Amino acid sequence: MNKPQILQVGPYPEWDEEPLNAAFSVYRYFEADDKSALLAAVGPTVRAIATRGELGANRAMIEACPALELVSVYGVGFDAVDLAVCRERGIRVTNTPDVLTNDVADLGVAMMLCQSRGMIGAEGWVKDGSWAANGLYPLKRRVWGRRAGVLGLGRIGYEVAKRLQGFDMQIAYSDVEAKDFAPNWEFVADPVALAARSDFLFVTLAASAATRHIVGRDVIAALGGEGMLINISRASNIDEEALLAALESGALGSAALDVFEGEPKLNPRFLALDNVLLQPHHASGTIETRKAMGQLVRDNLTAHFSGQPLLTPVL
Ligand code: 8YV
């Protein structure tokens, strides 16, 4: 039997490659020197695209595959998939929600702790001999008991807030409406008002055209010179230019960021700052979660090609 032909947009860990290649005829888009030539040659036979959250599948790629039936995303975020063209053509889309929620929440909280307590600098203080030479490390800010804002109380935002409760923080959130599963957390509809009452602001929104730059100049100013912004969602949720300017001037205290415009080539102005903690889009990056994500990508592909219902459909 002929295996279904799929286009793989980016690499996966090696434990995913073998089962993927066993079940499907895989065209490795990311390895092609001439990507347009590859699309022109194999696009007509491609029935599914297997991609990653941050890579998605754009209109040109989808249009080069006239027989496309499914886009299977390794990641919860599907903002990089052109959903409009998928809708027009009746192409199904799946993602990998739930399996990564706890790890993403863990990293957000870890970044808050690490940055607020100055742990990276403190390690440098030990390793470069400053402790022995100069004595005590400069004092940092506490986390427990302070005010946390969660912008977007979806699956990941909820797990972040749950963890913050363990630090006795005063928790508030913004979302399109108050959530009845969160009676102990204050609902603040306006993101600017949320930022104004927060010491730490977590951005946990699913990115879309509607949320683009939702964290703009006003939110950043309201968070202020003592505030910390933590982004474990997508760079597009934040006006990066306004963020950089505020970090440079001290109008915003600090930021802990896992995602960047144009990543992995982030704006070099980030590298010159000493009030940031920078992570390489790694919030879901544990072996356990990535194995579960890879399995779910394949399970959705397999379900589709065997006529079964998709496990985690987006469209
Ligand atoms: C990436 C993500 O998919 O879940 C998402 O939306 O962005 C991540 O989990 C991951 O970095 C693999 O590329």
Briefly note the structural class of the backbone.
alpha/beta
**What CATH architecture of the largest domain do you see?**
3-Layer(aba) Sandwich
Specify Rg, calculated over alpha carbons. 21 Å
CATH topology of the largest domain: Rossmann fold
> How many domains would you count in the coordinates?
2
Low-confidence stretches: none
User: CATH H-level name of the largest domain... which superfamily?
Assistant: NAD(P)-binding Rossmann-like Domain
| Arithmetic mean pLDDT | 98
**Helix-strand pattern, N to C?**
EHEHEHEHEHHHEHEEHEHEHEEH
Helix content: 25-40%
Distance between the termini: 28 Å
Distinct compounds present: 2-keto-D-gluconic acid
Strand content is 15-25%
- The helix count comes to 12
Adjacency order of strands in the biggest sheet: 8-7-6-9-10-11-12
Net shape: globular
Query: What's the story with the biggest beta sheet?
Result: 7 strands, parallel
> Based on DSSP secondary structure assignment, what is the total number of beta strands?
12
The CATH top-level class label of the largest domain = Alpha Beta
